[in-house]
Amino acid sequence: MRLARDVLSLFKLRIGMLIMVTALVGLAVTPGASLGAVQVLVLALSVLVASASAGAFNQYVEHDSDRLMARTRKRAFVTGALPHHPGWLLLIGVMLAGSVAAAWYSLNAMAAMYVFLGAFFYAVVYTVWLKQRSAWNIVVGGLAGSFAVLAGAAAADPTPGPLPLLVALVLFLWTPPHFWSLAIANRADYAAAGVPMLPVVVGTERAAWIVFYSTAALVAASLLPLAFGAGPVYALGAAGGGIHFLRKSWQLARYPERKTAMGSFFASLIQLSALLVAATVDGLLR
Question: Is the pTM of this model over 0.90?
């Protein structure tokens, strides 16, 4: 049982499930070909498995720095519960190749490309190229979620229209304030590990204000779909979740401490959940 938990944790399946949901939302908001049940299942699983491969690669690459952070020092590669062996890289490669091939065969080339890009940006662009080098690492890394939305949209229409593109933009803008809130709460961990997350580089107070301004940009962008056909259900979810996140990020900006940072972090999850549910229901109603 413990081994199963370690393996599941290695693949970051909680994050993978969220990314899979965003792909299905991209499908729901895109008018186009009606997919069969098998095609929808292939879309969901290809995004989930590709995300899992990227998550495992992230832990494989970062096992040394993970030892330095309280939040990550119990990961399986760090504790030795799973051997840090190159064989994992072969499994990761097979998972990603299989996901892309399945999406290409059952859906289309554009959907497959977006499945690949989502994993590539998280595993290589974020983990290998930027995380240890730039305070803006998570901004570019956030494209992983945006590509999942586009994969779902491309499954219905290889040339997505404005609605899925705007939802992808929302995912892109959501990731920085979400992750920076958590980084403020865990600033000492990142500093100890030498990871240049924003609050480590610019300080907690300035980072907190950047979170607030980023949240304001996110909320504004989340309302743009209303100009392109999104209905009242979407408006309710986007506005309600957005106001809640904006209020919590304002509290963080005024009182930059761990408690308000975690409040902003959890508010980001509520905001995204409300928006994704509302977008799905609105898309199905249309």
Answer: yes
